[in-house]
Amino acid sequence: MDMKHMLEHHILDEVWLRLPFLNGLLPWSKHLCMMLLAASLLLIFLPLAARGNLGRTAKGLVEALVLFIRDEILEPNLGHAGRYYLGYFCTLFLFILTCNLLGLIPFGATATGNIAVTLALASTTFFLIHIAGIREQGFSHYLRSIVPAGVPVWLWPLLYPIELIGFITKAFALCIRLFANMIAGHIVILVLFGLIFVFGAVNPWVGLVVTAPASVVLVLFVMCLELFVAFLQAYIFTFLTAIFVGGAVHPH
Fold first, then answer.
1. What pLDDT is stored for residue 122 in this prediction?
2. Residues 155, 159, 162, CA angle at the centre, nearest 5°?
């Protein structure tokens, strides 16, 4: 078995279709399709659940999730200003969570295991930090708040680039954290499955009788861990975004 091909198939993006116009510059890859599927599921089922068309249980779950994001993530970091951004944070959490979960189903793919996807999500956080800061403080006051109060004016030309690099670093950390955590689990699962074929190439009975049961048990454990990580990483990304935006809304 070609482990390199197996890893590339499950981890790297694949172009399934290239549209005939614009010289094929709009490729439909599996990660793009997974993102569109995640967005479609949310657009279809969330309004139905919120209106109670899917039963009281589904409506209660949606309400509990919104209240959790509002009371446990936004209120502690943004205060009352967090209510203006509740829709964005709910969308961010649910979209990341759905993309994470779609990668756990057969024939699915984890779009958040693509660094281009996580970079795009982190870029929205980068711009939201400044948009929220300008909205709550005004443009001129926000620019002054980027540099800590009490710093001499002659240090401003030095501190402004440093603070800008800090904003970029925050977004980059969000990008890498989500990407690395979502791709790591898939690599571990594939390596554990690969051990069966590695030991089977040495001795078929060792691979089938000894390695296979142990590998399957470990894979099931990692899959359960992956399910937990899917929720955890969606929460961490949303929570850190709230912290960064809160720092811009309330600089002191």
1. 94
2. 155
* Number of alpha carbons in the 13 Å side-chain half-sphere of residue 28: 10
Q: Which residues constitute the domain of residue 145? A: 29-249
Domain membership flag for residue 21: no
- Per-residue model confidence (pLDDT) at position 136: 84
C-alpha–C-alpha distance, residues 33 and 236, integer Å: 25
Quote the tokens at residue 104: 């756990």
Beta bridge partners of 18: 27
**β-bridge partners, 27:** 18
Helix axes 30-50, 56-68, angle to 10 degrees: 110
Residues in the chain: 252
Percent of the chain past pLDDT 70, that is, above it, reads: 85
Q: Looking at the domain assignment, is residue 17 inside a domain?
A: no
Hey, CA dihedral for 190, 191, 197, 201, is it positive or negative? Answer: positive
- In whole angstroms, how far apart are CA 73 and each of 6, 28, 30, 196? 39, 35, 32, 44
**Is the model's pLDDT at 228 over the cut of 70?**
yes
Q: Give how many domains the chain has, as a whole number.
A: 1
198 within domain boundaries: yes
